Amino acid sequence: MNWQNLMQMALKSLRNNKFRCFLTMLGIIIGVSSVITMLAIGQGSKRSIQAQISEMGSNVIMVFPGNRRAGGVRLSASDMQTLKIKDYEDIRKEATLLRLVSPMANSSGQFIYGAKNTPSTLYGVNCEYPEIRRLEVEQGEMFTEDDLRSLAKVCVVGQTVVDNLFEPGEEVLGKTIRFNATPFKIIGVLKKKGYNSMGQDQDDLVLAPYTSVQKRILAVTYFRSLYASAVEEDESQAAIAEITAILRRNHQLQAGQENDFEVRSQEEISQMLSSTTNLLTVLLASIAGISLLVGGIGIMNIMYVSVTERTKEIGLRLSIGAKGNHILRQFLIESVFISISGGIIGVILGCLASLLVKKVAGWPVFVQPWSVLLAFAVCTVTGVFFGWYPAKKAANLDPIEALRYE
């Protein structure tokens, strides 16, 4: 008996039980569509995070004061005053793998214009900071080195601050806003960036010369952090080693002594977030994969029922010369056909569900070709695996016993 005849017999048997066949497919359909949708959500989230980190500068390196014990008490980073102007100047002069460096002295408070006010953060930085963090001045200009030297009371504002303090369409360049009691003249407006993957509003900020913030606002001589940009993303780790060596020398730290600072890179943050999203993706796909397992059990169950119902038919075919392999192949064909058909429908529904999630919920989704192939391959293997035992049982039936079966 050739494969064509076996295919025809298998399809005829399935057509005779259309509704039961569809219900059996349903488990596979739900399983495959769930796996594709969950993987699409996971991959979309991962790509969204990577894109937003790239927008912030993939080769950005950040230096923060570190935790340290003093008198048996561990001080937090906010209490540390270890990053000085000499550290910034030495890093800028000596680090060969850094392209840009900016200090930061920031303070949160109320910005006031006329009768309006809004809470935001004032970041004291230098002229290189916007390029490090991929910020663009859309209107006006960035402050200059002369402004840094003269402690000028000028600032560049984010779009959220503009929206909260000024009327729509109102000219903001040249206007003076107050941070608490200190006036700052607006000389530039940053291009809108929106929210990042952590839900932070990237437009809710005000940039000013770090010298002005240090002396006029905070009255300090240290920095809250340093931001730098490596010459190449691949050089980030080597650049971190350079910064670490310079700071350990400046802070007179001996070999084996704990650093009083922390150096991080966007690459590390990206890897951490990617590993988290990968873990969530695997978790979601595993949960959805349970549906495939249930679908496979459904196939096995229905094939057992089919073998029982067709015991006399099987016995008759065996008695007139059909071989056990022919019976085995026929039932395997039925099982695989149910599984593959359900897989195809599941793939289509999974892709449609992913698009629906993107359109309705606004979540980032990305359907990768390998996820479709994986789901399709799994459902095929499911059909063979769960259909094999019932098919083998049918092939091993004794013809005489099968003919006597009631």
Strand-helix topology:
Blueprint: H1 3-15, H2 18-57, E1 60-65, E2 68-70, E3 73-75, H3 85-94, E4 98-113, E5 116-125, H4 129-132, E6 137-140, H5 145-149, E7 154-157, H6 159-165, E8 176-179, E9 182-190, E10 206-209, H7 210-218, E11 225-230, H8 236-250, E12 261-265, H9 266-309, H10 311-319, H11 324-361, H12 369-395, H13 399-404
Parallel strand pairs: 5-10, 7-9
Antiparallel strand pairs: 1-11, 1-12, 2-3, 4-5, 4-8, 4-11, 6-9, 7-10, 8-9
Distance between the termini: 27 Å
Largest sheet: spatial strand order: 4-5-10-7-9-8
Overall geometry comes to elongated
- What oligomeric state is this? single chain
- Strand-residue fraction? 15-25%
Q: What is the average of the pLDDT values?
A: 80
Order of helices and strands: HHEEEHEEHEHEHEEEHEHEHHHHH
Q: How does the helix and strand content classify structurally?
A: alpha+beta
Strand runs, count: 12
The count of domains is: 2
Defining key terms:
6-stranded mixed beta barrel, 18% strand, 12 strands, alpha+beta, elongated
What's a quick, concise take on this entry?
With 406 residues, the chain is an alpha+beta fold. The chain has helices at 3-15, 18-57, 85-94, 129-132, 145-149, 159-165, 210-218, 236-250, 266-309, 311-319, 324-361, 369-395, 399-404, and strands at residues 60-65, 68-70, 73-75, 98-113, 116-125, 137-140, 154-157, 176-179, 182-190, 206-209, 225-230, 261-265.
